[in-house]
Amino acid sequence: IKTIGVLTSGGDAPGMNAAIRAVVRRGISSGLKVKGIYKGYNGLLNEEIIDMTARDVSDTIERGGTILYTARCAEFRTEEGQRRGAEVCKKHGIEGLIVIGGDGSFAGAQKLANLGINTIGVPGTIDLDIACTEYTIGFDTAVNTAMEAIDKVRDTSTSHERCSIIEVMGRNAGYIALWCGIANGAEDVLLPERYDYDEQKLINNIIESRKAGKKHHIIINAEGIGHSEAMAKRIEAATGIETRATILGHMQRGGSPTCKDRVYASIMGAKAVDLLREGKTCRVVGYRHGEYVDFDINEALAMRKDVPEYQVEVCNSLSHNYSKLNK
Ligand code: F6P
């Protein structure tokens, strides 16, 4: 293999630049040519492809976002799009392609592998929702950003003796919500994986905690449940306690990556290059039981994961109300 390509696809995540940098530098130092593809599969189809040098990734490891830009590409979900993508790779001499993104992006990589392009996926998403790996690039930064924001909301919530619902990202997964629930010491945490929706229980918790003298009531609500504004209105009406909703939104995707994100992204990016050099294809890099590993993309996409029961139970047991909500 002489030439490889790298692209970022789907939602951006802090640490993607560290992964790109690792691919470029590991590739070049092992004698490969490395091409950067802009804007995910969209850029591949539009041939937005550049040659990359080691210098092109200088001063990028500390930057949030992705220097290659990213996109979600509907056309690449079609057979015609995938076939054209493989043709563009061949035209540009790209024999191996590293795709940094989530499950949707890996599905595209799997199709390209079937069309003769060696592909390796690197897990990049703040949601931590890729089943084959315990770690995804961006989660650590995002969860720290959310934690700091929630601490700030808590200050004003206490001053006004309010109830605050804070909605965190995660698509259909509750990992960011669970981690913030533990790290911020939230009174209630609403997880899509566990939520047996009973708003009356939530309302009772708020009333009880107020009676017990609590000055604030922090509810962390996962995006997968959503409807935080409407929930706040109903809670205020039922409890008589001023209630506000804060949706943290895309701020969770930005910012300089943490040390953990930089290091894991660097190692995963380098490993992806090593796999291509070993002639591997249709693999996803993962991190499991303290080791960097790789899985067949088809197997990885068929795996399922759930928020760990023990962590949910500990989160509940440490909350002020010993909430039964997530049981
Ligand atoms: O997958 C990352 C993520 O930020 C999810 O948490 C969220 O559901 C989604 O992307 C938002 O996507 P968009 O940037 O297209 O609004």
TrEMBL record:
Residues the entry annotates as binding ADP: 21-25, 154, 185-187, 214-216
InterPro entries from the UniProt entry: ATP_PFK, ATP_PFK_prok-type, PFKA_ATP_prok, Phosphofructokinase_CS, Phosphofructokinase_dom, PKF_sf
Activity control mechanisms: Allosterically activated by ADP and other diphosphonucleosides, and allosterically inhibited by phosphoenolpyruvate.
Domain Phosphofructokinase, first and last residues per copy: 4-276
Entry keyword ATP-binding: yes
Catalytic activity field: beta-D-fructose 6-phosphate + ATP = beta-D-fructose 1,6-bisphosphate + ADP + H(+)
Family matches, as SUPFAM superfamilies: Phosphofructokinase
Assembly and oligomerization: Homotetramer.
PANTHER family: ATP-DEPENDENT 6-PHOSPHOFRUCTOKINASE, PHOSPHOFRUCTOKINASE
Protein name as annotated: ATP-dependent 6-phosphofructokinase
Originating species: Blautia hydrogenotrophica (strain DSM 10507 / JCM 14656 / S5a33)
Gene behind this protein: pfkA
